[in-house]
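Let's practice the habit of predicting before peeking. Look at the sequence and jot down your guess about where helices and strands might fall. Then scroll down.
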Amino acid sequence: MGASVSIVFPAFNEAENIEASVQGAIRTMQELQREFEVIVVDDGSSDATRAKVDALGEEDPRVRCIHHAANRGYGAALRTGLLAARLDLVFFTDADLQFDLREISKLLAYADDYDIIAGYRSPRSDPLPRLVNAWAWGKLIDLLFDLKVRDVDCAFKVFNRRVLEAIPIQSVGAFINSEILVRARAEGFRLKQLPVRHYPRKAGTQSGANPKVVAKAFVELSRLYGELRSLESAGGPSGKR
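Done guessing? Here is the structure:
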């Protein structure tokens, strides 16, 4: 039996997907014979997500349910889940069934040698405008932070919990993935990237292209860029571990 795993699902209005997501995670971890917990963060959903998450928690004590009283954003929900995780490794993915949870085994195979194992969608099953936006965002992150990551926002990552204990996470929007990887790189944590399959969303609605979400991501990007530039000027972390 390998290291124990916390599985985090941030969820907003995912009533049509959440049961299958959680049940798929339980099934996968049982097959892998790993000690695990599933943490679902309901980010103030207005549909039946809350009730379904509570029912899942009542059925299985390994499922932990956290509710935000109001919608606080993807980053806030993810941060809540990551910081609530108790086990050795922390994995997160979305609750929209666009990934095959069984592919977590590919990432876990590298957990002894790397601090972060990040999936990248290959191929990515999203509409063309979303693909173009993602490409431009990735290029901007690389330009500003020199972060050589193929798919920075891919919601299929495993962290050794010491990564999350070592870095502050301030983002409450879509910038959270970039922030974690940028801060982890600055601390010298080791990263492995692997391809994972990606499927079209069959139910629910994506919110990543919402203008408010995009604007918040740029504000958080600017804040981190300014912070790191200040640290650099003052002779901050060397980025070696």
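How did you do? The chain has a mean pLDDT of 91.
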